[in-house]
Amino acid sequence: MRYKKRIITGILAVGILSITTSFKSDFFEIAKQIEIFTTLFKELNMNYVDETNPAKLMDTAIEAMLEDLDPYTKFWNEQEVEQARIQNAGEYTGIGAHVKTTQNKIILREVYQDYPADKAGLKAGDEIIKIDNITLQDFDEDAGELLKGSPDTQVKLTYLRQGKTKTTTLTREKVNINAVPFYQLTDGDIGYIVLTKFNKKASAEVAGALQELKKQGAKKIILDLRNNPGGLLSEAINVSNIFIEKGALITSTKSVIEKYNKTYFTQKAALDTNIPIAVLINGRSASASEIVSGSIQDLDRGVVLGARSFGKGLVQRPKKLTYGTQLKVTISRYYTPSGRCIQALDYQHRDKEGNAIRTQEDNYKEFLTKNGRKVYDGGGILPDIELKTAAYSEITKALETEDIIFNYVTKFYYDNPQLDPKKFYVDEKIYTDFLSYLKNNNFTYTTKTEKSLQNTLKTAKKEGLDKDIEQEYQTLLASIQQAKQHELQEKSEEIKQLLTDQIVKRYVYEKGLYAYYLTNNDVIKKAKEILNNPAEYKKILKTN
């Protein structure tokens, strides 16, 4: 298989990749390269010494072709096309759970309250090992698809929980994926709205929540976009339009392809252009979330709080291919009303490890908001008010990527069945226990500095200098390990916040977590403080 990959990748390098380069100007070159690839593919499959799998070879070819581009340009098979449709539509039929599917394994990441999985007693952390009569260990395709089906059909699940095997039977039903899973009036006159995704329901649900909260007496609004990965561009415009007057520029898109150079203005009369707004963002607020928070910031329509957003300034569009497949392709970059492109990573330029280069702060360009406040491009939306607990650093990302936090929270949940989540927070005792858990589970991650050192040592070996620098190399590695341990303490506030959020959510579900936020979350406390101080609010926005 490795040999096949080399063949395909080589052809892509000299052939298919040139399609992207030449597409706009040289149709003959496109036809030529397609013919070369087609004939090679045919000859390879007809003449190779062992039996080949044409579908797998083509998957390898496609993956290799797209690998040099940005991570958002992807080929979708039929199942992935359907999944995208579900995400945008906001509904599907299944068991009502968010799952992580890996090879021969399904882990429940979240169980939605009052849906089939919850009614059957399933919990986050449960590992499904068998669906009906299909043992997942022997199943090569996407096992997550087996959980879906027609409404009112049954599915039998066998799963592992804390080392014990259990079984249950569920009846599938329609699952609604709300863009606004929670809104509530707090402190008498502050409306709190959580927007978690930009599907087709987003603007309608935000508008409905705002109108209901105003009926209840809301005179100020907190719009929570933390952890919102984005979604539909059209819904980002519509959500902004709820608070921004008709005819205002929200975003513009620019591309080397002329037809994708567009400007997007609000199309309707706003619901409320005067109500004070606090928008909450963090390092996992991306794309459409950044369009909304960026427009509100640039137009001085509200105060933005939290931590710097993700920095995804690229726009994708699905293009239909044959046999029900699609190409989700990056077509343009988007810009906020002041002219900022907040894209953080440059995928056209990469380091020695092949990673996209991040725009350095020294290279950020300055722009001005409507009222003349200074804002910057190149690294996401920087909040007007930054808070440590909202940050999302490299070590926190590593803890999540390796499922360390998720697994610790699962263990904590079963170790503390009687916990009262209403007043819970991760104190030093719990955090010390978490650090012990990290040590016992040999948690480690590789920093960019370590990767650079490793490359330096490789170069030194080629030049015969490795023995001369070995001692210094080991000393530097030891220093980095100490620094990484120190970082667990330095970043303890954001890690504690993440642990607290996930632990509370295990006991009281998503809605319970947002209710908990209203009295316990530092970012919301600060937002309330700003909204309850009109003079400070106006001072931040430089309004009269």
TrEMBL record:
Q: Which residues form the signal peptide?
A: none
Any idea which UniProt keywords this protein has? Hydrolase, Protease, Serine protease
- GO function terms (MF aspect): serine-type endopeptidase activity
Q: Where is the PDZ domain?
A: 80-163
Q: Name one GO cellular component term.
A: outer membrane-bounded periplasmic space
| Protein name according to UniProt | Carboxyl-terminal processing protease
Record's family? Belongs to the peptidase S41A family.
A single GO BP: proteolysis
User: CDD domains annotated for this entry?
Assistant: cpPDZ_CPP-like (cd06782), Peptidase_S41_CPP (cd07560)
Which branch of life, at top level? Bacteria
Supply the Pfam families for this chain: PDZ_2 (PF13180), Peptidase_S41 (PF03572)
Which residue stretches, if any, does this entry annotate as coiled coil? Answer: none
Q: What is its EC number?
A: 3.4.21.102
Which InterPro entries does the entry mention?
Answer: ClpP/crotonase-like_dom_sf, PDZ, PDZ_sf, Peptidase_S41A, Tail-specific_protease
